[in-house]
Amino acid sequence: MGSETKVYTLAQVSEHNNSKDCWLIIGGKVFDVTKFLEDHPGGDEVLLSATGKDATDDFEDVGHSSSARAMMDEMYVGEVDSSTIPTKTKYAPPKQPQYNQDKTSEFVVKLLQFLVPLVILGVAVGIRFYTKSSA
Fold first, then answer.
1. 3-class SS at 20?
2. Distance (Å, whole) CA 128 – CA 135
3. What confidence tens digit (pLDDT) does each residue in 97-118 have?
């Protein structure tokens, strides 16, 4: 009664990677887009370059219309075995020392934080003694 859904590995889908036979993986589903290559508004190169990998991000980033999504139903051929798709690693930038914009070393900054108030205090005391002794 109900037809069984075909499950493909990434390797099997990757074999369909040319203009005569082109399959894509979007959202864990496998689509045969061969007949749509010529009509695709973004050109056939876009679809051909997305073969052999999970094209979900590429598809979503473009922001396809609801009519484009409806057309996909006609191209559906099965599901992909998610265990055959390599996991994406999140980019983590290498650890780097804190960048000090004005190139002043921390030691000089701490020294100035200590000396500047001391100099101000010394000037204030000097003015106080100077004004007292001249009066």
1. coil
2. 11
3. 666 555 667 778 788 888 988 9
